[in-house]
Write a structure and sequence with these properties.
- By secondary structure, the protein is α+β, with helices and mostly antiparallel strands.
- Helices cover 33% and strands 21% of the residues.
- The chain has eight helices and twelve strands.
- The chain has a five-stranded antiparallel β-sheet with strand order 3-7-6-5-4.
- α5 packs across α6.
- The N and C termini lie far apart (69 Å).
Amino acid sequence: MSSQDASDETQPDMSDSNVQEHSLETESDINQLEYNGIRYDKLTPEDLIGVKFVTVEAAEAFYYGYAKAMGFDVRKDDKRTSTRTGRVTIRKWVCSAEGERREKYMDNNNKVRMPKKLTRYHCPCLLKVRYFKEKNSYVVVNFKTDHSHDLAQPHESHFLRSHRSVPDSHLALATSMRRVSIKTCYAYQYMADISGGFANVGFKMKDLYNKLDSSQREIVLEGDAKATLAYLEGKAAEDKKLFCKYSTNENNKLANLFWRDSTSLLDYCCFGDVLVFDSTYKTNHYGKPLVLFVGSNNHLLTTIFG
């Protein structure tokens, strides 16, 4: 590590002030993005090896900015942590075209669908940092700039997957607009207007739809037990013969639940000669079996007893 130590003396620390943020509207914009007076498209391994980052996040932010300026997608690769301290000791990022598709996914003999388009071409581009305790920083130990494929144009870089994300502020705005019956597509149009164009939004409309859907699912999963019990309580007010019984675990969370309404009771009284105990084994989000008590009515149709 002597060569790297010598390089550390001449290379300044990486900080947010060294990285300039610009929207990539024209090809000339790439020349405005530089580190230590060197344009991103002119950076060489010798310019970056030995550079120190205070945190892994700082190194990642730099490489993502570099990748967006150059026009390629990033994939997180090797990560090693200390078993004693839990600190990340080695982190590596590669171009999304690194490596190759596994052979089992290329064999189409027993598949109906055609294989997806190839996206990996043994691209060697990467950035690797390692933590040095004596420096209390992450030092770049490997940096490659060569690619085995064409790069995206500056006006296309905002479509790359690793450079698209929906910030919390935009998510909150879209959620608020949904509550007043404004469609998501119109909310996205509004975000593009205030951002100065679709290229400056930072994500696609599909990303916004997916983010809204996932956030809604998180809300449901956090309060689904209460919502279920509230629904059954409301149903019991209308259906006097509804029966419900549940148990909780040691963490006071819903563990087991059984219920049936008056229709299920009537069906059981009429068609309960044959009772089928059907269960699916832990195929849901909670890892619990779903058990159905079913039978068959006089029309040979399936009826649920509970």
